[in-house]
Amino acid sequence: MKVLERYILGRAALLSLGALAATMLMVWIVQALTRLDLVTTNGQSVLVFLQISTLILPSIIPEVLPFAIAIAVAQTLSVMNADSELVVIGAAGSPRSTVIRPMLLLALGASLLSFAVSNLLDPLARLEFRTLVGAARADLISLVLQEGTFRKLGEGLYVQIAERVPGGDLRGVFVADSRSEGIDLVYYAKTGSVVDVKDNKILLMRDGMIQRKLAAGDVSVVRFHSYAFDLSQFIAGADAITMLPKDRSLAFLLDPDPNDPIYQKIPGEFRAELHGSRAVWTFQLVFALIGLAVAGDPRSHRESRISPLVTVLVLALLVRWLALVAADYAERSADFIVGIYAVPLLVSAMVLVLIWANRPLELPVGMVEAAGSALGRFNERRVKLGLRMRGLTFPSRRPS
To answer: What is the DSSP letter of 224?
Structure first.
């Protein structure tokens, strides 16, 4: 690789890493906030929350990496054009491949990384994620016994504790049981704890009383020194792991087990996952080609055009949307599988033709100006409405 090509590759790679880190951080924060219920509801530690949130990252990388490549290619070439570097490269007699080759090498490396993450790392991370979530939900003390809160375990059965003290002991245990018709039972104990007896979760209550009320109105009270209440049946299956199509390995998607209960319910989603989400690694190359077609040639600063970065991102979003639509139709019928591969192939072919013909790819300026004018009118009407609601008037425009 020539020195100039290494220079371009280094600039684009550095920018792509920055864009990837920034985009992943934003997406990770949004995804992590949706898991806050593990801390606020299930009482899990912050360490468990961070561990579960970190396991989301492998699923984010394949989705945001194509856009990081698109941003890197478009921005690198735009800056080089603004600094007249593209003009100097062309004037020095360097072929167009001097600019194209480094960008394609960067996109190829990103594609291989995306493929490895999607098909190797992401399924393992998703399995670990499901395991941790299942364990958190199966934690009886965190799931059921929360301080100052009545928790419904089943129809007619409620549990509440006043305080959880260090060491796992409980204080102020209250259980209301009205599952039996015509009989209401209320258990109260000063202290209690959760113990494991032959894989069963037992709520052991100490120093308390049982109040028994019949439908006829008769009430009886029995004091007890210790009383065992079995809660295992109410959390059975809480730690069960449900493996969705996105959680499966590539080997399973290629040869799914026909007896798998999830596969029997939604075979179309497994088909779409194999041909759609697992093929997302190709979009790095597609978006890099779009960036080259938009900003790969030197352009005059006096020439009116939309920012290359905006054009590339709009086209990249459009292509990704078409791929998602094709995958959605593939869930319904296997006849639409060809559409999943047709989108990146056709887009790449059209962009390559433009690059070969040395014709720039850009959004119509008139369309963007019309959209900007419509947005301006919308904002003006919104301001007028706000002023009218306050009893004010919008200043009229003076003719120029």
So the answer is: E
